[in-house]
Amino acid sequence: MFARVLLIVTLCAALPALAMPPIQTWQTTSGAHVYFVETHDLPMLDISIDFPAGSAFDTRAKSGVAGLTQLMLHLGATGLSEDEISRKIADVGAQLDGDFDLDRGGLSLRTLTSSDELTQALDVFTRVLQTPEFPAAALEREKIRLVADIKEADTKPDSIVDRNFSQLVYGDHPYALRASGEVDSVPTVTRDDLIAFYRAHYTADQATVAIIGDLDHQRAEAIAEQLTAQLPHAAALATIPPVPPLAHAELKVIPHPATQGHVLIGAPGMKRGDADYFPLYVGNYVLGGGGFVSRILNEVREKRGLAYTAYSYFMPMQQNGPFMIGLQTRKDQTAEALAVARATLKKFVDEGPTADELKQAKENIVGGFPLRLDSNRKILDYLSVIGFYHLPLTYIDDFPANVEKVTLADVRDAFKRRVDPERMVTVVVGPEPAEISNADNAK
Amino acid sequence: MFPLRHACRALPRLVLLITVVFQIPVAAAADVAAKIQQHKLANGLRVIVKEDHRAPVVVSMVWYKVGSIDEVNGTTGISHALEHMMFKGTKQVPAGEFSRLVAAAGGRENAFTDQDFTSFHQQLQKSQLPLAFRLEADRMQNLTLLQKEYAKEIRVVMEERRMRTDDQPEAQVQEQLMAAAFTSSPYRVPVIGWMNDIQNMTVADVRNWYQRWYAPNNAIIVVVGDVKAPEVFALAEKYFGTIKSKALPQRKPQEEPPQTGIRRVMVKAPAELPYLAMAWRAPLLQDPEKDWEPYALEVLSQILNGNEAARLNSSLVRNERIATAVDTSYEDTQRGPALFIISGNPAPGKTVDDLEQGVRRELEKIVNSGVSEEELKRVKAQVMASQVYQRDSTFFQALQIGSLESVGYPAATIDVMLQKLQQVTAAQVQEVAKKYFNDDSLTVATLDPQPLNGRRPPSPMEMGHVR
User: Average pLDDT by consecutive 10-residue portion of chain B (467 residues)?
Assistant: First the structure.
């Protein structure tokens, strides 16, 4: 799961004040927190509502409940069958999408703002959010589809490497659970499980509503009320336990008939709002986040032609999300590519970036700032992140200055404390264990 | 994943529809003709600008009219290999420097190769457009193509092929589908090339390809963003104006002969779920003003699969539970022959035959009973709205313009297509269904899943750990 979720990492920049309209924020009468940006360039509206309802709130025995709850929201709601929901949304050209990751579960809506279209799209959105029915027949079908997808994923080297990496990095922590659930857990999920999960997690006081588009404040307020008035209320707020540090280094090699070997190296990394966020973020640009100008891609691909992609990133979550390095290469080159990636990491943690590299990283991150907020969709994602993770409202405006402030010593210090090359999980899918463990011992 | 340089087989052409019954006037969506400005340099280079002042950014794309359709056997994949080599340096901007300069300017950059074109793009703060033009003008004429760099990069291309195709069972099926559906058209060849051709390609082959096709009169520049068109034209004159045009090679038509019977092909690969792809020969959009069949087929594609309650998903996935997933695709604006493709995975306990019969039943229903006005209206509303939504992204606006222009359709065709699509009738949809879903022009490709090396993949818990 982790390796494909790079978007989250890029959600962390800001815009020069000139381009960013102000964020309006308030609480609905039911307690939901709303973040709104008014922009009249296009006759359209984007809304997302997120809840602490991600896969981290699953248990191993019932792994998959969180994801199925989210999926089933739009498959039946008071008075509307799944086909009626799809048709009513399509009839007005609207788009209804699900949001789901380790922390968050929710829905987003994109619609035109012409009156009839907006009214109908919001009516459906209101119902699926607040009065889902979780029809049993649809649930049985979705469970069958899900199990088939899990079995399919378990044949694919990129999925196998992700799966094993999460398990070794997170152990008993719920971040080890995959969003889809497991072949043995999904069939045990019942409609009652979904209803209970919905009541505990899709609650008004835990909701983050992000809105951007062609609306005035008054209308946005009315919409936020409409969308949250009937949400459940919960006695206790949902929390995710802290992630324990990795106990020891571990290497796992899983043979596979594919032509390439897939490698992931990593450990628990950092969280949203982390004190080390900026040094780690800026430093990682140099290490493996900056694409063709990063050290890892340069060493693995540009210098040696070993891989098509090679990268590193931190995925900041509610608790420490993973730090990871990933690549895939022809199977008989796997040991070599792994050694190059490890050596690159070790050298970076030992020495830190050069002054020139740090300067380039800042130039790119600060200079590329307007690109991060050049569409309603991108701004919506920031609003949602700021709201859900309780980041300061000035987070966006402060971002360039926070990047500029990072020094060489900050990066070196943060990486030394937070990234230990000697204590990493390494998962390799493809080659025989002997090929990799030998290479490892020889090192 | 990282947006790295890649071969893009099925680039979304973003050909979208519109409706008359809708409240938003057509003009709100169909704004391309009104908003684009064009300029042609003396050397033949065309520059197309769409101003969009929503954010202080710009996207710049250079489209070369060369892709896998221009390739011949023995050097398949050469357009894509050249795309990779375009980042490997000129005298003034050595290997790696292109990416460094763009990154230092806060930019993002990438490239992709398709059957019909090769495209390079940068997204930047608006003040950095001169950098993009300077770098693109330089590599349009001064690529060094060193053997040392080529030797490394061609290995990267092989890794890309392994990752995208050789280790992806469904991608293998799609590759075999094209190879079976076409006999003489170069669309039978994968954009990334056959592995053996990649392995035997030389830097001399790539240099030859570069010299033949990379010329201002075989390129189009598309710029969308917070710019003023006259200033962009002046910049283009400054950086590209001195590049000499070339006599371009003659493009042979390589027309595909008619198909005269059903073709079937099977792929065996390690996987869990079977996969089915059915491809019928279909018409290209030749005359955007006068043609109607391609528009009717686009509407039909959406009626079959345009939303979760569309016919195929509603019947085959939700109600009959024959499939876990279904998809349709139809590209009618391209240089080579078109296919209408329906694909999907059978549900557990169902076979590819069950799914094929299910698909045939759904098509029969349309042939026999047509489609409803409600379905027609829904599709038109969706597509019109999509065209509005697309304007949220400068990148997709540029992509839409470039992917049409580079295959010979003026950008303003987008507006015509929106207008024509709203005129499609239920009778026309039924008529194209009758005409084109014909077994004699059908190719069917299937995946027969195999266990991993004769053994199931070990469950994570069973694996021994090696310290």
Answer: 35 31 50 90 98 96 98 97 97 95 95 97 97 98 97 97 96 98 97 98 98 98 98 98 97 94 97 97 97 98 96 97 97 96 97 98 98 97 94 95 96 94 97 98 97 56 38
Same domain membership, residue A217 and residue A271:
no
Contact (CB<8Å) B348/A112: no
**Does residue A275 share a domain with residue A151?**
no
In this complex, do B465 and A91 lie within 8 Å of one another by their Cβ atoms?
no
What's the pTM? 0.92
What's the number of domains chain A is made of?
A: 2
| Residue-wise burial string across B45-72, b where 16 or more C-beta atoms lie within 10 A, e elsewhere | bbbbbbbbebbbbbbbbbbbbbbbbbbe
In Å, how far are A53, A110, A143, B121 from A72, measured between CA atoms? 13, 19, 11, 40
Q: Rounded to an integer, what distance in angstroms lies between the CA atom of residue B81 and that of residue B209? A: 10
Domain edge (last residue) among A197, A228, A259: A228
Whether A189 maps to a domain, the answer reads yes
pLDDT, average across residues A278-285: 98
Tell me, yes or no, if B148 comes closer than 8 A to chain A by beta carbon. no
Chain A residues touching B4 at Cβ < 8 A: 291, 308-309
Q: Give me the count of residues in chain A.
A: 443
Chains A and B form CB pairs within 8 A to the count of 246
| CA B12/CA B410 separation, integer angstroms | 17
Same domain, A152 and A299: no
A10 occurs within a structural domain: no
B159 given a catalytic annotation: no
> Which structural domain, as residue segments, surrounds residue A86?
23-228
Shortest CB distance from A155 goes to which of B272, B386, B389? B272
- Residues A255, A194 within the same domain: no
CATH number at residue A217: 3.30.830.10
Residue A111 in this model has a pLDDT that exceeds 50:
yes
Chain B 56-115, CB below 8 Å of chain A: which residues? 56-57, 87, 95-96, 99-100, 103-108
* A93 with B124: Cβ contact below 8 A: no
Both A256 and A311 in one domain: the answer is: yes
pLDDT of residue B28: 59
The answer to whether residue A11 neighbours chain B at the CB level (below 8 Å) is no
pLDDT surpassing 80 at residue A116: yes
Q: Kindly state whether residues A373 and A285 are assigned to the same domain.
A: yes
Q: Which of B100, B159, B467 sits opposite A250 (nearest CB)?
A: B467
Separation between Cα atoms, residue A255 and residue A264, nearest integer Å: 14
CB contacts, 8 Å: B467 with chain A: 249-251
- Which domains, and CATH codes, for chain B? 34-240 (3.30.830.10), 263-450 (3.30.830.10)
Are residues B61 and B108 in contact, defined by beta-carbon separation less than 8 angstroms?
A: no
